[in-house]
Amino acid sequence: MKFFTSSTSPQLPCVYNCFATRTTHDVEDQFIDVIKSMGIGVAVHYNVLHLHSYYQKEYGILKDQFTFVTYYSERSTSLSLYPLMSIGDIERVIGVVTDLIVRCRH
Q: Would you tell me the crossing angle of helices 87-105 and 28-37 to the nearest 10 degrees?
C-alpha cells in the first residue's frame, strides 16, 4: 500500500485547514477507523456529488459514470488542522500517521 500526501503529490495541495491523504487501495474506512481510535480528527476528504441520493434520483446519475472522481473519493481522507494545535499535537498526529503507513507497507 502506498500513501500520497500534500507534500508528496502536487495534485493534493494543502489548504492549511486540513491535510489531505490518499491511498492506492480502497482502505479509507480502515484508515479512518484507526486514526479516530487514536483520538485524531479525520474525515472523508472528498464526497463526490454524483453519489449523493439527490443527484442520483434527480438526474439518474450512476456511480460508474464518473469513475475517476469515484476512485479518488474512495481513497482520500483529510486530517484536521487548526490554529490551537500545539507542537506536541502536531508531532503526535505525524507519529500516528507515520506508524500506520509503516505498518501498512509490511
A: 140
pTM over 0.85: no
Phi-psi region of 16 (alpha: psi -120 to 50; beta: other; left: phi over 0): left
Q: What is the pLDDT of residues 75-96, one digit of tens each?
A: 788 887 777 888 898 888 888 8
**Overall size of the chain counted in residues:** 106
> Could you tell me the CA-to-CA distances from 18 to 15, 66, 70, 77, 99 in Å, in that order?
6, 25, 21, 9, 20
CATH 3.90.1150.10 fits domain 3-105: yes
- Angstrom distances, CA of residue 38 to CA of 31, 54, 61, 100, 104: 11, 34, 37, 11, 16
